[in-house]
């Protein structure tokens, strides 16, 4: 990999940033919070009338779990967004073509390299993987 193709690399990183930012699956947190509030009010009504509120409580627990998972996913996306941003900044600061091994570049861009019999897999810190066939 040379930095002579820096524009292509920056474009790829930008696409990764967009994928990270739009990668939120499921229901927005605001909708989960609204539904939780509705369910809690409903739970109070049913409990006050001595009704069976098991299904409401189950849904509340389920929504809380979904919310917790969404918060964790958001934190992971923010971390990945930060790593991609750092990589973009580093690449934009490079002014010369690199034609030989550069330890600093490898440490800043690559998470790990896995060697198999038929290929080598390079995992970048952005989460992108590239397979290089032998």
* Overall 3D shape: elongated
The helix-and-strand class reads alpha+beta
Q: What percent of residues adopt helix (DSSP H or I)? A: 55-70%
* Percent strand: 5-15%
Placed side by side, the strands forming the largest sheet appear as 1-2-3
The number of helical runs is 4
Distance between the termini: 16 Å
**What's the overall average pLDDT, rounded?**
78
Low-pLDDT ranges: none
Return the string of H and E elements: HHHHEEE
Q: How many DSSP-defined strands?
A: 3
Biggest sheet descriptor: 3 strands, antiparallel
Please state the CA-atom Rg, rounded to the nearest Å. Answer: 23 Å
What are the SSEs and their pairings?
Layout: H1 6-21, H2 29-48, H3 54-93, H4 103-109, E1 110-115, E2 119-124, E3 129-133
Antiparallel strand pairs: 1-2, 2-3
Helix pairs in contact: 1-3, 2-3
What brief labels describe this structure?
three-stranded antiparallel β-sheet; 4 helices; alpha+beta
């Amino acid at each position: 990999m040379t930095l002579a193709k820096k524009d292509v690399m920056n474009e790829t990183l930008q696409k990764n940033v967009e994928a990270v930012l739009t990668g939120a699956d499921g229901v927005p947190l605001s909708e989960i919070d609204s539904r939780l509030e509705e369910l809690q009010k409903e739970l109070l009504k049913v409990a006050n009338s001595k009704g069976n509120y098991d299904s409401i409580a189950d849904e509340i627990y389920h929504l809380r779990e979904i919310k917790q998972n969404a918060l964790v996913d958001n934190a992971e996306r923010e971390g990945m967004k930060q790593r991609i941003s750092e990589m973009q900044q580093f690449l934009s600061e490079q002014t010369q073509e690199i034609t030989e091994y550069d330890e600093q570049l490898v440490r800043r861009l690559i998470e790990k390299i896995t060697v198999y019999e038929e290929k080598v897999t390079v995992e970048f810190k952005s989460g992108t993987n590239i397979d290089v066939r032998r």
